[in-house]
Amino acid sequence: MSKIYPDQFLGLPPCSEDEADVIILPLPLEKTVSYGSGTSRAPWAIINASCQIELFDEQTAVDFEQGPKIHTSPPVPYGSSVRKYLAAVRERVTTHRGKFVLALGGEHTVSYGVARGLTDDISGLTVVQIDAHADLAEELDGQQWSHGTVMKRLWEGGCRLMQIGVRSLSRPEYDLATGDPRIQTYFAHRLSEQWGEVIDALKQLTGEVYLSIDVDGLDPSVIPTTGTPQPDGLSWRQMVEVLRAVTSGPCHLVGADICEFIPSTPPPGRDLVPAKLATKVLAFWWQASGKR
To answer: How large is the angle between the packed helices 272-289 and 42-50, nearest 10 degrees?
Structure first.
């Protein structure tokens, strides 16, 4: 590819929504962050950094010049409230059903709108959540719609949760995470002894699955620039193993998001890491889809 299109993911030539296999959806929401700020700039930083990534993925042999076809969508604009924003995200995503939606946040709250847009009935959906935090609070800073409550809102809607890497949560969140049959939580302090179990559980998932990656789920040595970093997260290789496992079983991966990244100023810095992660998500999904 000779010409680079800097406003398109991977710098690929523009592709229409109708022709696309993949929708890249920028969601620059930053309204309920409780510590570090800057996530609203992340979607464009990730798209810009993606233009520096090779179009061939050596692990999957996926060549992005040949497929999948990727449409980089305009961002969903913010309205008057977080709840209305999530409704707008849900409406936009509904129009993309049948395609793989990869959302780039923005704060983690956006996952609610994306997941609800991908299916009419989320009681049949499993959310695989990579995260340092459980995000199962009833409210955070007096808000029910927040980056710290997003998984509680999805759980209330009936979906199942598989949480990997959690290492920061309140006692009520802990009681819910360990006491509810629709929530399976793998805490960071036990990952070394449970890793085989985690991979097996991912491979055995069935039905529709949505992958939500809060970058603070990874160790700060991989991505330190996030709003609420915590030590002892997943390594890059563990993250890739998760992608390989969730795309190798019988489940149908319908979409994913990458959230809570704070771009470097000025680049280059860690911006390339979430961009590379987004590319890996698409490569493993496309390899599994059998469309190459």
So the answer is: 70
* Residue 175 domain boundaries: 18-286
- Other Cβ atoms less than 10 A from the Cβ of 138: the count is 14
Instruction: Give CA separation, 202 vs 47, 111, 250, in Å.
Output: 28, 20, 10
**The Cα angle at residue 58 between residues 54 and 59, in degrees rounded to 5:** 130
Q: How many domains does the chain have?
A: 1
Whether residue 286 contacts residue 292, with contact meaning beta carbons closer than 8 Å, is answered with: yes
Question: How far is it, in rounded angstroms, from Cα 117 to Cα 128?
Answer: 17
10 belongs to a structural domain: no
pLDDT tens for 184-234 read 999 999 999 999 999 999 999 999 999 999 999 999 999 999 999 999 999
Per the domain annotation, does 5 fall within a domain? no
Q: How far apart are CA 220 and CA 262, in angstroms?
A: 12
Classify burial at 273, counting beta carbons within 10 Å of its beta carbon; exposed 0-12, middle 13-18, buried 19 or more: buried
**Other CB atoms within 10 Å distance of the CB of residue 174:** 15
Residue 115 and residue 101: Cα distance in Å, rounded?
Answer: 10
- pLDDT per position as a tens digit, 9-44: 999 999 999 999 999 999 999 998 888 899 999 999
CATH code of 156's domain: 3.40.800.10
